[in-house]
Write a structure and sequence with these properties.
The protein is an alpha/beta fold. It has helices at residues 41-49, 74-78, 96-106, 111-124, 140-152, 170-185, 197-202; strands spanning 2-12, 15-25, 30-34, 56-61, 64-65, 81-84, 158-162, 189-193, 206-211, 214-219. It is built from 7 helices and 10 strands. The structure holds adenosine-5'-triphosphate (ATP) and magnesium ion (MG). Adenosine-5'-triphosphate (ATP) is lined by residues 11, 15, 17, 35, 37-43, 86. Residues 11, 15, 17, 35, 37-43, 86 line the site of adenosine-5'-triphosphate. Belongs to the ABC transporter superfamily.
Length: 236
């Protein structure tokens, strides 16, 4: 479903954010992207959404070759992806409901379906009672949940989530993981960049570790880091 071969991303001549990345993700997989700040996790996600273009290599999502995809066709790709960017981006002058409805209007979903889909997505993230609130009336964690609702509102086959549990308390983070877990159980492919070692070590999935723009580990049901990492030491 997602295939990268020898992918490079250079932001400038002397700044190579990703180097020789080769990776295959099958439909229905759940993949954590881990690694220190600046490793290249967000860059990898941005290459998949075409927010950034790869410098060279091969990158395909489904039957779409992203190196060759013309800019004017990028929206058609995006509407099939659920994207949770690292920075919360909501339209401040629109209510929560309208922020989500706007996404669906932009991709020409039928009017009567919009209401149904928006309410269902808000219900899934437990934010239905905030549908008439404006983003600046919500906490950062609550805004994050709205961003997740917006990502899932059109039932995407692939979710690309960059730190979806950042800025959240543990209870909210667990709620978000339950949502992603359920979506994955029903066949949605999920790529999630995270620094949350507890989540990675608890809900075990494939772990891809990136460091200095290179893949240094690709492990089925992996852990967040080495056993010597103090965050991985649990007293039972
Ligand atoms: N728009 C940009 N222009 C130039 N360099 C960039 C740009 N975005 C990222 N970089 C560089 O690319 C490298 C990888 O950044 P990236 O944002 O992918 O890291 P990350 O793993 O997501 O980090 P974090 O965990 O802090 O989110 C860094 O060296 C960063 O400075
Ligand atoms: Mg990042």
């Amino acid at each position: 479903m997602i295939r990268l071969a020898n992918v490079y991303k250079k932001y400038t001549e002397d700044n190579t954010a990703l180097e020789n990345i080769s990776l295959k993700v099958d439909q229905g997989e759940f993949l954590y992207l881990v690694g220190p700040s600046g490793a290249g996790k967000s860059t990898l996600i941005k290459l998949l959404t075409c927010e950034e273009r790869l410098t060279r290599g091969f990158l395909k999502i489904g039957n779409v070759d992203l190196l060759k995809l013309p800019d004017q066709h990028v929206p058609e790709l995006r509407r099939q992806l659920g994207v949770v960017p690292q920075d919360i981006f909501l339209l401040d002058h629109l209510t929560v409901y309208k922020n989500l409805a706007y996404t669906l209007q932009a991709i020409e979903v039928e009017r009567k379906k919009i209401k149904e889909k928006v309410l269902a997505a808000l219900e899934k993230v437990g934010m239905l009672q905030f549908k008439n609130a404006y983003p600046n009336q919500l906490s950062i964690g609550q805004q994050q949940k709205i961003v997740i609702a917006r990502a899932i509102v059109n039932d995407p086959k692939i979710i690309l989530a960059d730190e979806p549990t950042g800025n959240m308390d543990n209870k909210s983070a667990i709620e978000i993981m339950k949502i992603l877990y359920k979506l994955n159980q029903s066949g949605t492919t999920i790529l999630m960049a995270t620094h949350n070692s507890t989540i990675v070590n608890t809900l075990r999935y494939r772990v891809l570790e990136i460091n200095h723009g290179r893949i240094i580990r690709d492990q089925a049901e992996g852990s967040y880091g080495l056993a010597t990492d103090y965050r991985d030491v649990f007293v039972i």
